[in-house]
Design a protein that fits this description.
The complex is a heterodimer. Chain A has 2 helices and 21 strands. By secondary structure, chain A is mainly β. The two termini of chain A are 33 Å apart. In chain B, 20% of the residues lie in helices and 29% in strands. The chains are: A mainly beta, B alpha+beta. Chain A binds chain B through residues 20-21, 23-28, 125-126, 132, 134-137, 142, 181, 183-184, 225-228, 230, 232-233, 250-253, 257, 260, 262-263, 283, 285-286, 288-289, 292-293, 296, 307-308, and chain B through 7-13, 15, 28, 38-46, 48, 50, 52-54, 57-59, 124-131, 133, 169-170, 172, 187, 189, 194-195, 198-199.
Chain lengths: 308, 211
């Protein structure tokens, strides 16, 4: 039982659970850039929240189902054509053998998730199927999907149609307000950062996105010995443009770590695309903790096994 | 914050200042055994722990860390594993060795013999899978990073910057001047033990041309 990638779009990879506990060996988390959208797609087809699914950057992709199977699509706002009709995001659909799903280029947001009511065959490294391209780990032969790739499916299911509750549809936008706490290298001169709007440049990947705007001046002789860094960190390299880290980010770094986007809002980073505008909202550690619990409580009825 | 050695590193991580290498790695091992932390990552001057903020509030995480730190870390095992790596220095394998020689006024042979004179200590792994940060030449020998990072550095390449030596386990982009290369596989994802090198080990470089 298989599905075939007809068009992968700009970049399509298999992603599953993140790799946790190996950053001291240089192994990044990987996993979906927007874990909430992937969990919502998996929920619609009866999978665990972190079951292996297809992550498609900017949409513009097509898949053929070679066996009867249910699927669901979430994430970036994209028109879907399935077996010749228009279908909706955030709903489970069932394909017959030979049916094609065409995902139009995303109008807003960055990453589309396709979950399949099946076990998607993928390489496993350190207990995770998530693709990490720089080291060819996990996924389909450790690489991005290509046109003509055949993905093996096991335990294929056809399930009744279901929709994500309306109030849980994430909102894609071209402008994000991300809650953040001060990072360990936040300088006193940086207070104005909270009033600035930053723009995402074309340097954007699963490792991170570059931001342009009025960043504080950090003296070049300021010493920052290499130290741990995590997704959600806003670093300021020497060139004066910020770099906001995503799921595949390096595990250690030596650039000033100005801000940390709080865990409650980190899933939004996976939908940020070049040209989008970003503001940072100042929060304390306690506010970050409260915000996380509040968002988690909203999600837990529909996604009982999902943790932000 | 009560302990001046601990700072927050975002909303779900804490950083413990630990300048001494052996003490730092011993702390990292101790913290890893408690099961309180998602990640325990030694840096060059500190150890950072990441916690699950749904399990622990920031105040609780701080209390757990302080509690563990109240007990001295078990001393490192007396036998330190040493890995021997044959290295091809200079030329195509080490395209920046000649430039470092010109810049520092030390001959290529002198630079290499200084690196071979004693085992290099692995401070930490990081950046990308298996990349090892090791002790390097004397801090007084100034070696800046490349102005333009390379798009592709071959796996096994050895880089040198001021005070540090780095081993590229994977092929990929890199900004350290490259002085040589080992053919030994440092990262093998299909092996039972994918990582040849670990923090706390020492590496003895051997001149492959001399053997």
């Amino acid at each position: 039982m298989t599905l075939t990638i007809l068009q992968p779009g700009v970049q399509a990879t298999l992603q599953g659970t993140p790799r946790i506990g190996a950053r001291h060996l240089g192994v990044p988390a990987s996993g979906p850039a927007d874990p909430l959208s992937m969990a919502l797609a998996n929920r619609l087809v009866g999978n665990a929240s972190d079951a292996t699914a297809i992550e498609i950057t900017f949409g513009g992709a097509a898949i053929r189902f070679d066996t009867p199977v249910s699927f669901a699509v979430t994430g970036a706002q994209s028109a879907l054509a399935f077996a010749g009709r228009v279908v909706a995001l955030h709903a489970a659909h069932t394909a017959q053998a030979g049916d094609e799903l065409h995902i139009a280029p995303a109008r807003q947001g960055c990453r589309v998730y396709v979950a399949i009511a099946a076990n998607i065959d993928a390489n496993v490294f350190l207990g995770s199927t998530s693709t990490y391209l720089p080291a060819a780990l996990g996924g389909h032969e450790g690489r991005a999907l290509k046109a003509g790739d055949t993905i093996n499916l096991a335990s294929v299911c056809v399930i009744p149609s279901m929709e994500t509750p309306e109030d849980l549809h994430p909102v894609c936008s071209n402008s994000y307000a991300l809650r953040a706490v001060e990072g360990p290298d936040f300088p006193a001169s940086a207070r104005r950062m909270w009033d600035e709007t930053f723009t995402v440049t074309r340097r954007a990947s699963r490792m991170g996105v570059e931001l342009e705007g009025a960043f504080p001046h950090i003296p070049e002789d300021a010493s920052h010995p290499s130290a741990a860094i995590f997704p959600g960190a806003l670093q300021l390299p020497l060139g004066g443009r910020g770099f906001l880290l995503l799921a595949d980010a390096q595990t250690t770094g030596g650039y000033p770590h100005l801000l940390q986007v709080i865990r409650a809002d980190r899933h939004l980073l996976g939908q940020v695309r070049p040209g989008d505008r970003i503001r940072f909202l100042h929060r304390t550690q306690q506010q970050a903790s409260d915000a996380l619990r509040a968002k988690q409580a909203l999600l837990s009825a529909w996604l009982p096994d999902f943790h932000l | 914050m009560n302990d001046p050695a601990i700072t927050f590193c975002g909303d779900d991580a804490l950083r413990l200042s630990a300048p001494d290498r052996d003490g730092r790695l011993a702390r990292a091992r101790q913290l890893r055994t408690t099961g309180d932390w998602l990640e325990v990552v030694p840096g060059r001057r500190d150890v950072t722990v990441q916690f699950d903020p749904l399990r622990h509030t920031p105040t609780e995480a701080l209390a757990y860390l302080s509690h563990t730190l109240a007990t001295p870390a078990p001393p490192p095992s007396r036998t330190r594993e040493t890995v021997e790596l044959p290295v091809h220095f200079g030329g195509k394998n080490g395209p920046d060795l000649a430039d470092i020689s010109n810049r520092t006024g030390l001959s290529e042979a002198e630079l290499v013999s200084r690196l071979l004179s004693e085992p290099l200590q692995i401070d930490m792994l990081g950046f990308t899978p298996g990349f090892a940060y090791m002790s390097g030449l004397d801090d007084m020998i100034e070696i800046p990073r490349l102005l333009q990072p390379r798009q592709q550095v071959p796996a096994g390449s050895i880089g040198l910057i001021t005070g540090q030596c780095g081993l590229y386990a994977l092929a990929g982009p890199g900004g350290w001047p490259i002085i040589g290369r080992t053919r030994v596989s440092l990262f093998d994802p299909v092996s039972d033990k994918p990582f040849r090198l670990q923090p706390g080990m020492q590496v003895r470089l051997v001149d492959a041309a001399a053997s």
